[in-house]
Amino acid sequence: MSIEVTPELQQQAEQVVARARQTFRSGRTKAISFRKTQLRALYRFMTEQEAAIKQALYDDLHKSDAEAQLMELDTVMSDIADHVENLDKWTKPQPTQKGMAFLLDKTEIVYEPYGVVLIIGAWNYPFQLTLWPLLGAIAAGNCAVLKPSEVAGHTSELLEKELPQYLDKDCFHVVAGDARITTALLQQRFDYIFYTGSSQVGKVVLQAAAKHITPVTLELGGKGPCIVDSDCDITVVARRILFGKFLNAGQTCIAPDYVLCDHETQDKLVEAMRAPLVEFYGKNPKESQHFGRIVNKRHFERVKKLLDSNKVVIGGETDEETLYIAPTILANVSPDDDIMKEENEVFGPLLPIVPVAGKEEAIEFVNSREKPLAMYAFSNNKQFGQDLIDQTSSGQFCFNDTLIHAAVPSLPFGGVGHSGMGAYHGKFTFETFSHKRAVMLRTMKDEWLQGKLRYPPLTPKKVAWMQRFLKKNLRDEKRSWWSMLLVLLIGAGMAFFVMTCLHM
Ligand code: NAD
After folding, report:
1. What's the gap in Å between 120 CA and the centre of ligand 1?
2. Could you tell me if the CB of 149 is within 6 A of ligand 1?
3. Left, alpha or beta for 256 (phi > 0: left; psi -120 to 50: alpha)?
4. What is the pLDDT of residues 160-206, one digit of tens each?
5. Burial of 212 (0-12, 13-18, 19+ CB in 10 A)
6. What's the predicted TM-score (pTM) here?
7. How far apart are CA 36 and CA 191, in angstroms?
8. For the chain, does the N or the C end have fewer beta carbons within 10 angstroms?
C-alpha cells in the first residue's frame, strides 16, 4: 500500500503540524478554563450547525434525522457535557499509596497532555468518530489535527469549512483530503495518534507511529459473532439482533456480523425476524426513511459480491443507482463461503447465519479467528453468557442485546488484538489523551536516615535495612490467612482492653 505524496501535500502537512506545535509550546491549551471554553465551543458548533450536519449525513449515508441526532450528535454532546462537568476533578493530581519508607513524601499521578495529536476518522459515523476523540484531546489539553474520512465527503467538507469558525484556529486544524494527505500527515511527528478504520490501514498507522515511538489508539474492526442459545426468547432475540445489524445499513463497527446457532434455532430465528423487519422498515425498506444506504459504489460492489442468492432467506434486493441493499438474512452459511472467509466484517446489511452443533463448537469457531471488536450472546441461561466471557476474548461483550453497551459511559469502548488497542468514552476519553505522569515530591528532612541506609558503600547491614523498608515478600496463602487472623485477634483484644480501661 504505497501512496505517493506530492511536495505540496507534504508542505501542507508540515505547516499545519508546525503551527499546532508552536501553539502547544506556548502552554495556552493547558489552562483548564481554556479547555472548557473550547469544549463549550464544540458543543455550540453541534447545536448551531445541527441542520447542516444532519443534511451532510443524509447526503453521505441516507442517515435519518433520528439516527443522526441520537448516534452522531447526542453521543458526543453528552460526553462533552460530562467532561466539562468533571474536568476540575479529573485533572487534579491523584495521590497514590506509598509505603512506610516514604511517609514524609508526596506521590501522585499528574495528568498531562501529550502535545500535538493526530485524529484520523472513519466514514460510517463520520461526525461521531472524529469529534468524540477531538473532545478528549481538548479536555486533556492537547492541540489537534483532525483528518475526517474522505469517503463521507459532505461531512468532511462541512467539518473543514465550519468547525474552525468555532474552535481556536492555532490549536485545532481540520485537514480534508484523501489517503495521500493522511499519508503526508503520518510522515510528520505527532505526540499521539488516534485512528479509526480498517485493520489494514491500522497497520500502516502503527508503522508510521513506530518511527517516532508515538503512542496510538487504534479503533479497528473485525467480524463480531452473535451466539444464540436454543433456550432463549426468540422473538425478543430477533428484534435485538435486527436492531444492531441494520442500524446505518449494517455499517456499524460493533454490529453483529454473523449468527452462530443450531439448525433448529436458525429456522425459528429466521421466522421470528420477518415481522419485526416489516415493523421497522415497512414492506419495502427502499422507501423507508429509517433505512440507510451504502456509502459509495466501491463499498456497494464489495457488499454485493458477498450476497450469495442461494442462501438468501429474507431480502436480497439491490439497486446500484441508489446504492441500496435490502436488509438481508442468509441461512445455512458455511465457514467457507466468501461472506465468512474475509477477516473484515461484512459492513453492510447482510446477516449470515452459520449453523453449529452447540455452544462448544461456537466457542471453538470464535477462538479460531481474530479477536473481535464486539461479541454478543443470547440465552435464558446466565451460565451460557458466563461461559462465553470465560472462554473467549473480544474488545466488548454484551449478553442478551446488541450495541446498547456502547451507550454506557463507564464502559471503555475499544478492541483487542486485531480489533485494536486503547479505548475511549466517558472518563476513558480524557485519560486516553493524557499521559499519566508519575510525580514524587521528596522531603529533605530525612537525610540523616538516608545517609545511614542508601548511599555507598552498601554494607550488608544497610542492605538488610533497605529490604526491611522496601521489599515485599511473597507469603504463602495459608500463612497470610493465619497472619491476618492473628492481626484481627490482636486488634480485637486491644480494643477490648481499651474499652474495659475506659469503663473502669
Ligand atoms: P476509511 O476508508 O474512511 O479510512 C479511514 C481513514 O484512513 C481515512 O481518513 C483515510 O484517509 C485513511 N486511509 C485510508 N487508506 C489509507 C492508506 N492507505 N494510508 C493512510 N491512510 C489511509 O475507513 P475504512 O478503513 O473503510 O473504515 C471501515 C473500517 O473501520 C471497518 O473495518 C470498521 O469496523 C472500522 N471501524 C472501527 C470503528 C471502531 O470504533 N473500532 C469505528 C468505525 C469503523
Report:
1. 8
2. yes
3. beta
4. 999 999 999 999 999 999 999 999 999 999 999 999 999 999 999 99
5. exposed
6. 0.93
7. 22
8. C
Of the candidates 253, 345, 398, 431, the residue annotated as catalytic is: 253
What is the SS3 assignment for 247-293?
A: HHHHCCCCCCCEEEECHHHHHHHHHHHHHHHHHHHCCCHHHCCCCCC
Residue 420 near ligand 1, beta carbon < 6 Å: yes
What's the CA gap between 198 and 201, in Å, rounded? Answer: 6
> Does the C-beta of 206 come closer than 6 Å to ligand 1?
no
C-alpha cell at 193: 495518534
**Ligand 1 neighbourhood includes 147 CB (under 6 angstroms):** yes
How many angstroms does the Cα of residue 31 sit away from the middle of ligand 1?
A: 33
Dist. CA 144–CA 56, nearest whole Å: 23
253 in catalytic set? yes
CATH tag for 225-413 (out of 3.40.1280.10, 3.30.70.60, 3.30.110.40, 3.40.309.10):
3.40.309.10
Give the distance from CA 467 to its chain's centroid.
42
Residues of the chain scoring pLDDT < 70: 1, 479-480, 498-499, 501-504
The domain limits of the chain are 17-220+428-437, 225-413, 447-502
Q: How far is CA 134 from CA 147, 164, 443, in A?
A: 11, 13, 39
